[in-house]
Amino acid sequence: MSDLISKNLSRRTFLKGGAALGTGAMLGFNQIFGFSRVFGQDMKDDDLATIINLASTAELFATTHYLAAINGASDMGLTGAEIAYLKAGFLAEQDHLELLQSLGAKPVVTEFYVPEKLFSDKALFSAVTEVAETAFVGAYLAATRIFSASADTTKYAVTTAQIAAVEAEHRALAREIGGKLPNNISYAQFTLHNVSDAVPVLQPFLDGKPADDSLGKFVGPVMPPTADDIKKVRAEIAALKYDESVKPFAAMDAM
């Protein structure tokens, strides 16, 4: 884990971009990462275990993040429609996590840290969620690139593309919550060459040690959802009109 944390981008690189979050603005990811970093194709590709373990960590963080936001909805002044966005997002992330775990994935950490005001400041929540979801899109597109290189893993490439598409929907809804144009880009942003490149972006949320105070004090650990928490939100599937019929291609291909 320490090797993954130390390589590639520094935490400060991300947080320089994060300094703008408190004002309701955010640097584009091409400014944070730089295109030379994005397309650094001399790097060795992540292996399958690294991909699914880090992806499951990101998904566990996402479920933790969205559940805390649902619980803090009144503090942020969220509307009923916005709360429904979060609940459906939570269900999708939980479905992704369970798929990865069925493949043997194990999150590298199981508790997280967040800025103290993350779930009481709507603008901060929107901006941080956009950063996180953009990182998730980039990570799954990186996985798609890796899996598509071999005929043996093509079914996984399709599945990671499916997940990236949904993470992009979450990014758009986070922007909507923040009062920004949701669908503001023509192409999902290919920000990461490897899934492991996402670790420095999310690192403060993994250890609670940001490089500076751009996002305020980090607090935690925040524990992930319990089985009862998951069951409670799943009970609202019909009311949310959440569609459970769409399956991952990897599962469909195995039928």
What strand line-up does the widest sheet have? Answer: 1-2
Number of strands: 2
Helix content: 55-70%
Mean pLDDT: 85
Low-pLDDT residue intervals, each spanning 5 or more residues? 1-41
Gyration radius from CA atoms, angstroms: 17 Å
What is the makeup of the main sheet? 2 strands, antiparallel
Strand content: under 5%
Shape: globular
Order of helices and strands: HHHHHHHEHHHEHHH
Kindly name the structural category.
mainly alpha
Number of helices: 13
N-to-C CA distance = 35 Å
- Give the tally of structural domains: 1
Structural descriptors:
mainly alpha; two-stranded antiparallel sheet; 2 strands; disordered N terminus
Topology:
Blueprint: H1 2-6, H2 11-18, H3 29-33, H4 35-38, H5 48-71, H6 73-76, H7 80-102, E1 112-115, H8 122-147, H9 154-177, H10 199-207, E2 218-222, H11 227-234, H12 237-240, H13 249-253
Antiparallel strand pairs: 1-2
Helix pairs in contact: 5-7, 5-8, 7-9, 8-9
Q: What does this entry look like structurally?
A:
The protein has 255 residues and is mainly alpha-helical. The chain has a two-stranded antiparallel sheet with strand order 1-2. It has helices at 2-6, 11-18, 29-33, 35-38, 48-71, 73-76, 80-102, 122-147, 154-177, 199-207, 227-234, 237-240, 249-253, and strands at residues 112-115, 218-222. It has one domain. Helix content is 58%, strand content 4%.
